């Protein structure tokens, strides 16, 4: 069975600094996808970034990058140059080759301080 | 290009009533997924549907809950005889590829917040 673990219930970061949100996963499937979503206080789920298990390079999307360490089964999200609008809940998720449901972690609440 | 549409955004029901939640996937997407988010928790998978077929309902409660995705029209998540524990945000997501792949992003709708009085 798939499992996603986010060990940081809450994180604080100063505006303009970088922050890393942790995510570890467990699966027996060799082919899988890892995703990060942002959920602001308004409640919608916003897709941020995707990493495939066979991708050789870490994914990047603007200020978001994914630090993918396959051997350690970790897929940490790095947000550079934090902005006040980055304050939100962040979820790590995984899909395997069955490619149906996604399994989500419990989330990390990020607060950016001015 | 419209995203995933869900309605209503907020729904209030009294115990014992029925709740119907609707989801229209993104244009060109043929796979629909429903998730439930209890307060202060992550999203939990409920059901995965393609047009006219339930593919995976392993996360659906055995009683009172049902889902459909007809050939025409939106996907419907139906909760009969609601109880207070059903109060949650219900999210619909859609994806495109057929057959679906692990890297096929699921795009989420804005959710329906169900409150059971």
pLDDT below 50 for ≥5 consecutive residues: which ranges of chain B?
none
Write down the secondary-structure element order of chain B. EEEEEEEEEEE
Number of helices of chain B: 0
Helix content of chain A: under 10%
Q: What about the largest sheet of chain A?
A: 6 strands, mixed
Distance between the termini of chain A: 41 Å
Morphology of chain B? globular
Give the H and E element order of chain A.
EEEEEEEEEEEE
Oligomer state of the chains in this structure: heterodimer
Main sheet makeup of chain B: 7 strands, mixed
Mean pLDDT of chain B: 91
Structural class of chain A: mainly beta
Summarize the structure.
The complex is a heterodimer of chains A (114) and B (117). Chain A is mainly beta and 114 residues long.
Structure description:
Chain A is an all-beta fold and 114 residues long. Helices cover 0% and strands 53% of the residues of chain A. Chain A has no helices and 12 strands. In chain A, strands 2, 5, 6, 10, 11 and 12 form a 6-stranded mixed β-sheet that branches. A 4-stranded antiparallel β-sheet of chain A has the order 3-9-8-7, with no helix packed on it. In chain A, strands 1-4 form a two-stranded antiparallel sheet. In chain A, a hairpin with a 6-residue loop joins strand 10 and strand 11. The radius of gyration of chain A is 14 Å and the shape is globular. The mean pLDDT of chain A is 93. In chain B, 0% of the residues lie in helices and 48% in strands. The model of chain B has no long low-confidence stretch (mean pLDDT 91). Chain B is built from no helices and 11 strands. In chain B, the strands form 2 sheets. In chain B, strands 2, 4, 5, 6, 9, 10 and 11 form a 7-stranded mixed β-sheet that branches. In chain B, strands 1-3-8-7 form a 4-stranded antiparallel β-sheet, with no helix packed on it. With 117 residues, chain B is mostly beta strands. The chains are: A mainly beta (114), B mainly beta (117). Chains A and B meet through strand 5, strand 6, strand 10 and strand 11 of A and strand 5, strand 9 and strand 10 of B.
């Amino acid at each position: 069975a798939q499992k996603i673990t986010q060990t940081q219930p809450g994180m604080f970061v100063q505006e303009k600094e970088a922050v890393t949100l942790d995510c570890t996963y467990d699966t027996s499937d060799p082919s899988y996808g890892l995703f990060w979503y942002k959920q602001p206080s308004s409640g919608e789920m916003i897709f941020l970034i995707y990493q495939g298990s066979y991708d050789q390079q870490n994914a990047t999307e603007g200020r978001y990058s994914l630090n993918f360490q396959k051997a350690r089964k970790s897929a940490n999200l790095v947000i550079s140059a934090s902005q006040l609008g980055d304050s939100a809940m962040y979820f790590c998720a995984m899909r395997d080759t069955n490619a149906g449901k996604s399994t989500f972690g419990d989330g990390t609440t990020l607060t950016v301080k001015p | 290009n419209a995203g995933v549409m869900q309605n209503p955004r907020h729904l209030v029901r009294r115990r014992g009533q029925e709740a119907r939640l609707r989801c229209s996937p993104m244009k060109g997407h043929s796979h629909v997924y429903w998730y439930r988010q209890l307060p202060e928790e992550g999203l939990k998978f409920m059901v995965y549907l393609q047009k006219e077929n339930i593919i995976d309902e392993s996360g659906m409660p055995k009683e009172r809950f049902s889902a459909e995705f007809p050939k025409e029209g939106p996907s419907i998540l139906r909760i009969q005889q609601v109880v207070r524990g059903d109060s949650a945000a219900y999210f619909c997501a859609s994806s495109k590829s057929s057959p679906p792949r692990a890297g096929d992003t699921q795009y989420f709708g804005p959710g329906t917040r169900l409150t059971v009085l």
